Amino acid sequence: MDKDIAEKIAKELNITDEDFQSRKLFLQITEEDIRNIKKLGAALGGIPEEMFRNFYKHLMSFEQTRLFFSGSNQIERLIEKQKKYFAELLSGEYDRNYLLTRLYVGYKHVELNVVPLWYIGAFNKYTDEIRKLVGRVKDRIDEEATVESIRKIITMDIVLTLESYHYAKYKLQEELKRMVVTDELTGIFNRRKLDELIEYEIDKGIRFEKPLSLIMLDIDHFKEVNDTFGHDTGDVVLREMADGIRRLLREEDYLIRYGGEEFLVILTNTPLEKAKNVAERIREAVSRMRFKKVGGITVSLGVAEYNKGEKKEKLLKRADKNLYMAKKQGRNRTCW
Questions:
Q1: Which residue has the higher pLDDT, 309 or 122?
Q2: Is 261 a catalytic residue?
Q3: By the 8 A CB rule, do 242 and 257 touch?
Q4: More confident call, 332 vs 26
């Protein structure tokens, strides 16, 4: 178990030690249940492997689960893990480490692409096998009470595992969404995210009567950088450029990689005059930067403020037109 990951999951799900105790009370897990389980462990004297072989034989009888298992070696490893889990269950020590282990199992099941439906089948078969197991030593324990005690603990375990499973699934989906709208090289938003952001900010600006401005900028003579020093060096320039510009912006502004060497800045609640000042700060800051092998680099910038009623395409076109003017007038300048 990776304890750091398990602790993070517990924190994000707000499963504290107090909450864990509350769950036990909610499931009516009592000291009597714990005594029943410990007594079963003592009566068995060991973990019977046959129980787990029957369990996996049952799972392997279904095509959808059979495809999941990659061979006998994997089954043997899983049997060992199940024996370890059952030993922990029979110990009656349901402490924080027990909780974290269950949460980590859910996390790993997402990595392994385990389907939640299998939990239901596993639960039913598991309880069947446990009932058979308990039946072997029924002369030394209360058979029905012990089966019920174990059922409560397994129910708690499945709930914890499913909570962690859905948390990990949600995080995975969020990461996939982030990857779709993030430029892999620079770590900033890509053009795919642009439409969503600009429409949202235009609507917000209209609703609250706040100005909105764009800065479109292009690295001057960037093709020469790639041709002279190679694309790896060009990539370093793009990454460092993005980092440098990002540090000059407010938290509420957006930096987007618009094209190869083009970047777009969305300045929320910013009129043209202030946007021009921001653009000049960016231009001057970039001109002071020094890049390995390349040395100094300059940028050209075009600034445009949103005009009431215009489409986003027209706003982008005006910013691009002003960028073109800056290039035409000699580069390393800002036009609006």
A1: 309
A2: yes
A3: yes
A4: 332
Q: CA 280 to CA 244: how far, in whole Å?
A: 14
- Catalytic position from the list 201, 240, 261, 305: 261
Kindly tell me if the per-residue pLDDT of 70 is higher than 70.
no
Closest CA to 282 of 294, 298, 259: 298
d(CA 47, CA 62): 26
Output the pTM of the full model: 0.59
Closest to 218 measured CA to CA, from 318, 334, 305, 315: 334
Task: Tell me what percent of the residues of the chain surpass a pLDDT of 90.
Answer: 50
Task: Return d(Cα 205, Cα 210) in angstroms, integer.
Answer: 4
Predicted local confidence at residue 72, as pLDDT = 60
162/96 Cα distance (integer angstroms): 17
CA atoms of 41 and 35, how far apart (whole Å): 10
CA distance 251 to 247: 9
> What top-level class would CATH report for the domain 191-335?
alpha beta
For the cut 90, the answer to whether the pLDDT of residue 158 exceeds it is: no
Q: Where are the domains of the chain?
A: 3-180, 191-335
Report how far residue 287's alpha carbon sits from residue 244's, in angstroms, rounded to the nearest whole number: 11
E strands present in 82-156 = none
**pLDDT mean over 233-259:** 96
> May I ask the CATH architecture of the domain 3-180?
Orthogonal Bundle (1.10)
* β-pair partners for 334: 301
Average pLDDT over the chain, rounded to whole?
A: 89
- Report in angstroms the alpha-carbon separations of 248 from 242, 278, 285, 326: 10, 8, 9, 21
Dump the DSSP string for 218-268.
EETTHHHHHHHH-HHHHHHHHHHHHHHHHHHS-TT-EEEE-SSSEEEEEEE
Helix (H) or strand (E) holding 212: strand 212-219
